[in-house]
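The material for today's practical consists of a large collection of protein records. Getting from the letters to the tokens is the skill we practise here. To make this concrete, we reproduce a full record directly below:
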Amino acid sequence: MSNTLIHETRRLEFPLDTLVDALIELEDKQGHWPSKATVVGASIDHEATTDSDRVILSIHRPDSGKVIERRYALPMIAAAIVNYCLTVRVPLPRNSTKSIEVLPDGVALVLENTVMLQCRHEELSTLPAGSVPTPDSAPPDSVPPPGGSTPTDPSPASASPTPDAAADGRADAQGAS
């Protein structure tokens, strides 16, 4: 038996407000989120290069009364999203390839995975699908369908009487002539 492949692609889209929650969750877990700080602004920098900061949070710190900016590059965004998914129990296959795409209003985590399974059939032939005649269109001398017999063309000698002949009793006379 041969093997078959299943290719899976999942796309988890995070709008900006969910992305902000994910970043706060990770920063707080790592002990880097300022106590009682609130986010007063968030944006995605679509003109940034791949290595630069992509998400910018404006954070109000009540202890100092100041608003500071925090900038996050794609690796930190990816870590925050994976952490957030684990925290809220969104299943992520461990062996999948993960990548981040920046969207107009958020980011997407793209998961790609390939699974190899054993086939339950022999290798498929190169016979084009639909080229095998169906039992309805098969000629009389073709192979019978499973569990059935091939229809035969009745000859004139064994033809059944016409409905009119049977109805008015002429069936016997027609068969005798």
About this structure: Helices lie at 16-29, 74-87, 163-167, 171-176.
